[in-house]
Design brief:
about 290 residues; Phosphorylase Kinase, domain 1; Transferase(Phosphotransferase), domain 1; 2 domains; six-stranded antiparallel beta sheet; three-stranded antiparallel beta sheet; 7 helices; 11 strands
Length: about 290
């Protein structure tokens, strides 16, 4: 993030420093009166779509795994920004959870699925589930995990989505989501669906378990879509460091959650969570 011009103030928030930079924009640590710390995410106008339904996530859905918005400004000034509580968190990754047993990893993802079920029950969908939006806070006891970036969607621009950015976004998208992006779909037809979230969580699950990002070597969204069509991906192999789970059953769960056709996936996140828990052979030490 060197060379980036850092704003001094955004809205009522005094900016201290940038802490992360992604496809969507830049996250800053900021303070308000009384030295209360916040995370302020300023969206890049070239790739971020300002969707009115994003505001519905503010305070509407309360869950321990959902990072709630404290403020959203998508209408005034020259910046679009989202504000949440500031926590010492990092994107979830295999190496960050190296000491967590495999059954506990499945339980973490099952709990995320149940949290997303609440979102779907409210008539919403996340639309951008990927490992960089699943944040982990390593504390004493089970790690605390949060889902961020609710209600923010991409606008596809081939000049913006070069190989690096393609590899950070499209591998996690369901095939139907990629098709809508490439078609430059707008309006109600382009809104994310629960089936899209189920697919994205399935891809995220595989990365958490294996440390490998599917399709990371593919240059274009079209190539990723074709590879998804051929299903040359995502099966968790016997050489991966996974213990105390039914690997054959887990592969079936992965295959179902990431089916090319939405109708072939789990019907709900609750069903996905139940299937994940059925793969755990040893319950001891699994957080609930």
């Amino acid at each position: 993030m060197s060379g980036e011009e850092i704003p001094k103030v955004i809205g009522e928030y005094t900016i201290m420093r940038p802490v992360a930079r992604g496809v969507m924009g830049t996250v800053y640590v900021a303070t308000t009166a009384g030295n209360v710390f916040h995370a302020v995410k300023v969206l890049d106008p070239k790739v971020a779509e300002k969707l009115p339904w994003a505001t519905r996530f503010r305070g509407e859905i309360k869950d321990k795994h959902i990072l709630d918005y404290k403020a959203i400004d998508i209408t005034t000034g020259d910046r679009t920004y989202f504000v949440s509580e500031y926590l010492e968190v990092k994107p979830i990754a295999r190496h960050r959870l190296a000491g967590v047993r495999s059954g506990a990893l499945l339980e973490i993802v099952a709990e995320l699925a149940e949290s997303l079920q609440k979102v779907h029950d409210a008539g919403l969908a996340h639309g951008n589930i990927k490992t960089s939006n699943v944040l982990v806070r390593m504390v004493e006891g089970p790690p605390q995990v949060y889902i961020s970036d609710f209600g923010i969607g991409y606008v596809y621009d081939p000049d913006v989505f070069t190989q690096d950015k393609v590899g950070k976004t499209f591998p996690y998208m369901s095939p139907e989501r990629i098709k809508l992006m490439l078609a430059r779909a707008r309006g109600k037809d382009a809104l994310p669906t629960p089936a899209m979230d189920i697919y994205s969580l399935g891809v995220t699950l595989c990365e958490i378990l294996t440390g490998s990002v599917a399709y990371s070597d593919v240059d274009t969204p079209e190539m990723i879509l074709e590879k998804k069509r051929k299903r040359q991906y995502l099966v968790v192999g016997m050489n991966t460091p996974i213990k105390r789970i039914d690997l054959a059953r887990l592969n079936d769960v992965v295959a179902k959650s990431t089916s090319f056709e939405p109708k072939d996936r789990f019907r709900t996140m609750k069903e996905f969570a139940e299937a994940l828990r059925s793969c755990i052979l040893e319950k001891e030490g699994v957080p609930h």
